[in-house]
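During the second half of the funding period, the structural biology subgroup turned its attention to how the target accommodates small molecules. The most pressing case was glutathione, which had performed well in the primary screen but for which no bound structure existed. We therefore specified the complex as follows and requested a full 3D prediction, including the ligand pose.
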Amino acid sequence: MIDLYTWPTPNGFKVSIMLEEVGLPYNVVPIDITKGDQFDADFLKISPNNKMPAIVDNDGPGAMPYSLFESGAILMYLAEKTGRFMPADMAPRYLVIQWLMFQMGSIGPMFGQAHHFRTYAPDNLSYAIDRYTNETGRLYGVMEHRLGEAEYLAGEYSIADMAVFPWTRGHERQGQSLDDFPNLKRWFEAISARPAVERGLTVLADRRRENWHKDEEAFSIMFGKNQYARRQTGAQ
Ligand SMILES: N[C@@H](CCC(=O)N[C@@H](CS)C(=O)NCC(=O)O)C(=O)O
């Protein structure tokens, strides 16, 4: 059994979608990041960056419990464990890893900042809003081009698509319209219709609070002084 430490965010849904796709049994452990669960000492042991998602595979390599943080590493681990959604041959395997790294290195950080400055930041900082909205639009364009030449990012449906898809669900609040990206829209609709994806997106979905960032305590935990006071950085 796999323990999935998660919360209903794009990074969390990547892993619940993959677990549903491969049909591995899993137990959901909620990490309510708006209440500070990410700072609990026990969670820190498996996720030293204080972020969800994380997993503990109680039947890991050598039949020992194995814990992992970073969603991209978790997706690769589950793909390798099950032999699914990441080919074994080197050329197609690295095509998947390439698009997965594109998600981890560009989509996640840039879309995350777009969410932050467009929705969460208390001040209306036009430079930051323009910068991250434009970067998000540029990255939608990169995917649009790729999806004009391939059905899925790495050719066949893979963990790269599972990593990107949850981030594209927020296209409206990222200031983007899928009508401007017809290939991406075709890809988005195909993935949305997959039963495993539908199931993966239900994980803790009822725990998500609209406008949680307007709650002063939650804002402080996520973005304010509170988080720096509670993170253990090891700095002297
Ligand atoms: N690169 C990490 C990012 C994880 C991440 O940013 N998680 C956020 C929510 S989506 C989180 O746990 N935030 C809580 C915090 O930083 O206090 C991954 O892909 O796993």
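Two results from this model are relevant to the next phase. The chain has two domains: 2-84+199-230, 90-198. The longest helix spans residues 90-120.
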